[in-house]
Design brief:
CATH superfamily of the largest domain: ATP-grasp fold, B domain
Strand content: 15-25%
Structural class: alpha+beta
Keywords: ATP-binding, Metal-binding, Nucleotide-binding
Strand order of the largest sheet: 11-10-9-12-13
GO cellular component, one term: cytoplasm
Largest sheet: 5 strands, antiparallel
GO molecular function: ATP binding; ligase activity, forming carbon-nitrogen bonds; metal ion binding
Pfam families: LysX_preATP_grasp (PF22626), RimK (PF08443)
Shape: globular
Protein name: Lysine biosynthesis enzyme LysX
CATH architecture of the largest domain: 2-Layer Sandwich
Distance between the termini: 14 Å
Helix content: 25-40%
Number of domains: 3
Order of helices and strands: EHEEHEHHEHEEHEEEEHEEHH
């Protein structure tokens, strides 16, 4: 397991591997220089859990080029790490999601929101933990946010925009391991951003037939060994908001009673 900061999730995965008798090695990649000889054993599976998504994908691509099976594969990381690529993949599979647009200029962003309508949500193409999201309720707010993003530089000058979905104060984070939906939590908050990293409260949600089939469709669209899928319940049914390839799960084990790290370890063992 390759990491740059040893979080609770990495510790749990390593602990469960040991308890299950699965050989596991923790490797700190913080000071790696890629392109040279790396102290990574051949065979087995490399589970990439670096904090930075860009660094994680870089590590995964270098390891895969040397014939090492990486989880998740870098192509899956790339789809999940870019909200437009995620949206395109979901569209291709016919997966319901909030309406979205990508604009390449401030003027285009204004036009896109005019098409989607207020309120709308502007997101960075790459980002997590609910950071740098902006809900705009009117044109004055939109102009301010677009100008601010434009001045932040090239990484913020591609505008990913979604319709705002009234989700009733909660969303759902569901987990898919080895292509199989295994658990889901409801994340509730009075704030429109419900991430547990931003204070959302977690409780168990049974994975019913409708949700199970939707998550199977997400798996077909995105691929991968482990996915964390964010869902909205709307008047159009379930909508897929985002798909994460390296999702955190420490706040989901207790409410669901599901051994998520154990399921991940068992799946990785089957890949060898």
């Amino acid at each position: 397991m390759i990491y740059t900061r040893l979080r609770v999730e990495e510790k749990l995965l390593h602990q469960r591997a040991q308890e299950l008798g699965v050989p596991s090695r923790l490797v700190d990649a913080t000071h790696w220089v890629l392109g040279g000889d790396l102290d990574v054993p051949s065979g087995g599976v490399a589970l990439c859990r670096a904090i930075s998504h860009g660094q994680n994908e870089t590590i995964a691509r270098c390891l895969e080029s040397r014939g090492i099976r990486v989880s998740n594969p870098p192509e899956v990381m790339a789809r999940c790490g870019n909200k437009m690529l995620t949206a395109l993949a979901l569209d291709a599979e016919g997966i319901p999601q909030p309406r979205w647009r990508v604009a390449l200029s401030p003027e285009g962003a204004m036009e896109a929101v005019g098409d989607l309508g207020f309120p709308a949500v502007l997101k960075p193409l790459c980002g997590s933990w609910g950071r740098l999201l902006a809900k705009v309720n009117d044109r004055d707010a939109l102009e301010a946010v677009v100008e601010h993003k434009h001045q932040l530089g090239v990484n913020h000058q591609t505008y990913f925009i979604q319709e705002y979905v009234e989700k009733g104060g909660f969303d759902v984070r569901a987990f898919v391991v080895g292509g199989r939906p295994v658990a889901a939590i409801r994340r509730s908050s009075p704030h429109w951003i419900t991430n547990t990293a931003r204070g959302g409260e977690a409780s168990n949600v049974p994975v019913d037939v409708e949700m199970y089939r939707l998550l199977e469709g997400v798996q077909r669209a995105i691929g991968g060994d482990f996915l964390a899928v964010d869902l909205f319940r709307s008047d159009r049914g379930w909508l897929v908001n985002e798909v994460n390839d390296g999702g955190e799960f420490k706040n989901s084990i207790g409410p669901t009673g599901v051994d998520i790290p154990g399921l991940i370890v068992r799946h990785l063992l089957d890949l060898k």
